[in-house]
Structures are given as C-alpha cells and as structure tokens.
Specification:
Strand order of the largest sheet: 3-2-1-4-5-8-9-10
Mean pLDDT: 97
Helix content: 40-55%
Bound molecules: NADPH dihydro-nicotinamide-adenine-dinucleotide phosphate, 1,3-dihydroxyacetonephosphate
Largest sheet: 8 strands, mixed
Domain Glycerol-3-phosphate dehydrogenase NAD-dependent C-terminal: 179-318
Function: Catalyzes the reduction of the glycolytic intermediate dihydroxyacetone phosphate (DHAP) to sn-glycerol 3-phosphate (G3P), the key precursor for phospholipid synthesis.
Active site: 190
Strand content: 5-15%
Family: Belongs to the NAD-dependent glycerol-3-phosphate dehydrogenase family.
Binding site for sn-glycerol 3-phosphate: 107, 135, 137, 190, 243, 253-255
Length: 329
C-alpha cells in the first residue's frame, strides 16, 4: 500500500519533530523553512541547532525553502507560529492541491482578527480539507521516540481516520475526533494557563496552589468550550485536560518557563528568553472571546492584565484569592 505523501511547513522544534515522525516509512518528507539560510543550515547540520539541539533530522527529511516543493503533497502539516499562519497559508495557496489535508499543528488564536486557526485556513485555503493536531507532546520527547498520544480532529471522520493512520507510529499515537473547534481551543488556551501556573511556581506558592490553579483553569476552559460549542469529552481528552496538565506542570514548557520568569520578577520583555511563547500572543484575544460570549475567565484575565502591565503578579494573585466565594463549577 502506498502511503500518503506528507510535507511540513515550519522548521522549528515541532516542525522537525513531526517531520521525523512522518519520515518513518516514507522516502522523502519536504520540510519547509521560511528563511533560505535556515533551510541550508538544516541541510548542512542535519539538526535544528537553535530549537532542538542534539536531535538529528531523520534521513528522509529534506529541508527546502521554496513552497513549490510541497506541490502534490496529499497531507501538509502547518507548524508555524499561530500569528504567522495566515501569511503562510496565503503563500501556500497556489501550491496546495485540491482536496489536500492541511493539518494545523500550531497552538494559538489569531490576535489581530480574533480567528481560530481553522477559520484562518478556511479563509485563505478554500481548496484545503482542514484538520487539527493537538495534545500533550513536547517536541524533544517525540524526537527521542518517547511514547506520546495526541488528538487529530477533522470535521470529516474518514479523513480524521486516514490522517491518524498516516501519522501514527509505534510511539506516536493519534486518537481521532470530529470536534475541530474543541481541539484547537484546548491547545490555544492551555498556553495562557501555563503562564499562570509558571507564575505561581516562580512566586513559590506551593504544590497545593499549583493543583488548584490547574483545576480552576480547567473549569475556565470547559466553561468557554461549552459556550463556544465544543464537546465536553474533548475538554476531558488529550488536547484539553491532557495538554493542560503537561504544560502547567513542567518547566520544559516555554509558556510555563516564561510565567516562572515573570513570577520571579523578570519583565515581560526579558522573560521569554527569545523563545516562542504562544500564550503571550493568545491571552488577550482569548479574554476578548470569552467576554464576547459572556463567560468569566478570571485566570486568563489575570494573565492578560499582567502581560499588558495593568496588574502586578502579586496584585493578580491577591485579586484571584479575594474573589467572592461561589459554588464550584
Ligand atoms: N515545541 C513543541 O513542543 C510544540 C509546539 N507546538 C506548536 O507548534 C507551533 C510552532 O512551535 P515550535 O516549532 O515549537 O516553535 P519554534 O520557535 O521552535 O519554531 C518556530 C519556527 O517557525 C518559523 N517562523 C517564524 N516566523 C515565521 C513566519 N512568518 N513564516 C514561517 N515560519 C516562521 C521560525 O523560523 P525562524 O527561527 O527562522 O524565525 C521557526 O523555524 C507553535 O504554535 C507551538 O505552540 C505544538 C506542540 C508541541
Ligand atoms: O504544546 C506543547 C506541549 O504540548 C509545548 O508547550 P510550550 O509551547 O509551552 O513549550
């Protein structure tokens, strides 16, 4: 049986990890980098020294910088930062085959136009069949072949099944879903909550506070999910609770580490250490979406207020603790 051809857009940590997954059982997987110099360095070094040092590219991965290299791919994995998704999708339009699967692997919400990634793709790539891959998965773990399970959602269930079959390996296990919105919402929101969890850690609030923060973040996620029409099973699954627990509980997460640095007193400008922290871009738009839907998200609101310098970390903690007592839910 011939396997679906796969191309990967975005050659950062997650793009490399997914290209390595796709390379299993395939002869060639184009990995597109937007900077020709970056593609050349990847081809020379056979690793991404900046984002995933020490973890080599699989032999079948072919770094490229021209989008024509993805012509004819049956499955395209879009692994660029969320705020770059529209620009990349627009550039890809002349190269994407009619009916090709376009799998969104970024975790974020478009800040300027307040759009989910699937909406961006629907607007820019009408010929694509959109899907979302999301769940608890650090790129380095996947590259090392450690066991990982994520969710793959497409509105069309047979497509979701086909994509799960095309991408699953012995150690990278995909579960299918048709709840596209629920899956992308979990991936985008957990980054914001991970910043809050990191701040609590940086302020040394203790393990009990960490657990409370995760549970209350999950309550916010499920409230918003319900309000926007996502399924509760999705919120309970890998892309919801699973990724929330991973990202809020590990300094390996860039979002958590960013929050931790803020909690220790670093400025928002310095805290990321130059790394991509999607939650910092998503916090404000997430809060705007929640407000528009009449849904309370005090933890996400606190992160947004801190990032926009309207509140200090200590004042935010105080405000969260002093909220009126209420029934759990
Ligand atoms: N790392 C992980 O473990 C996981 C990441 N994700 C998600 O995947 C997405 C990508 O993250 P990740 O790969 O880790 O991030 P990295 O910072 O490792 O890489 C981002 C890549 O995108 C490139 N890039 C930046 N701007 C553009 C642009 N305008 N057009 C095209 N490419 C661009 C960067 O190139 P350059 O360096 O040249 O600027 C870089 O190669 C994020 O949404 C993240 O949340 C999801 C699951 C796991
Ligand atoms: O999405 C991730 C794990 O599932 C990676 O998280 P960070 O972007 O916070 O590193």
């Amino acid at each position: 049986m011939t396997r679906d051809s796969i191309a990967v857009l975005g050659a950062g940590a997650w793009g490399v990890a997914l290209a390595n997954v796709a390379a299993q059982g395939r002869e060639r997987v184009p990995l597109w980098a937007h900077e020709p110099a970056h593609a050349a360095a990847l081809a020379r070094d056979r690793e991404n020294k900046a984002h995933l040092p020490g973890l080599p590219l699989a032999q079948a991965v072919a770094p490229v910088s021209d989008l024509a290299s993805i012509d004819g791919a049956e499955i395209v994995l879009a692994v660029v930062p969320a705020q770059a998704m529209r620009e990349v999708a627009r550039a890809v339009r002349p190269h994407l085959a009619e009916g090709a699967a376009f799998v969104i692997c970024a975790k974020g919400i478009e800040r300027d136009r307040r759009r989910f990634m699937s909406e961006v793709v629907a607007e820019e790539l009408p010929q694509a069949r959109p899907a979302v891959l999301s769940g608890p998965s650090f790129a380095a773990d996947v590259c090392r072949g450690l066991p990982t399970a994520v969710t793959l959602a497409a509105a069309d269930e047979p497509l979701a099944q086909r994509l799960c079959e095309a991408l699953s390996t012995r150690t990278f296990r995909l579960y299918r879903s048709t709840d596209l919105l629920g899956v992308e919402l979990g991936g985008a929101a957990k980054n914001v909550f991970a910043i809050a969890a990191g701040m609590a850690s940086g302020r040394r609030l203790g393990a009990s506070a960490q657990a409370a923060l995760i549970a209350r973040s999950f309550a916010e996620l499920t409230r918003l999910g319900r309000g926007l029409g996502a399924r509760s099973e999705t919120m309970m699954g890998l892309s919801g609770l699973g990724d929330l627990v991973l990202t809020c509980g590990s300094a390996q997460s860039r979002n958590f580490a960013f929050g931790e640095a803020l909690g220790r007193g670093a400025s928002a400008k310095d805290a990321s250490g130059g790394k991509l922290t999607e939650g910092a871009f998503t916090a404000h738009v997430l809060v705007q979406m929640a407000r528009a839907a009449g849904i309370e998200m005090p933890i996400a609101e606190a992160v947004d207020a801190i990032l926009s310098a309207r509140l200090s970390v200590d004042a935010a903690i105080e405000a969260l603790l002093m909220r009126p007592l209420k029934a759990e839910g």
